[in-house]
Specification:
This protein has 105 residues and is an all-alpha fold. It has one helix spanning 2-104. The chain is built from one helix and no strands. Its main location: membrane.
Amino acid sequence: MTSASSSSARSLFAESKQRLAERVQVNMNNISSLTRQIQRGSKSNELLSKAARDFAATENLMENSEENLKKMQLIAVHIGYQYESIQKSAQMLLEIKEQVAQMQR
């Protein structure tokens, strides 16, 4: 009986040792998986920070573009006024030219 119980104890010890080794292996795999996810997470955090900085820079560029468009609109209005003035002056020159021509006849 002693040999049977000692062989049973040995097999139980071997089984528990094997299960312990399997659990250690599973835990090591889980730790490596967790490490990879943490590394990915830190990279995604860097990407999010870069995206936020780029967005802020883009926002500044859009504000500058809006200001430039407003200035261009003002310039377009002033050019329109100048064009009308030049047209009036040209029309007046034609009328004056006709009057001079009539006076010379």
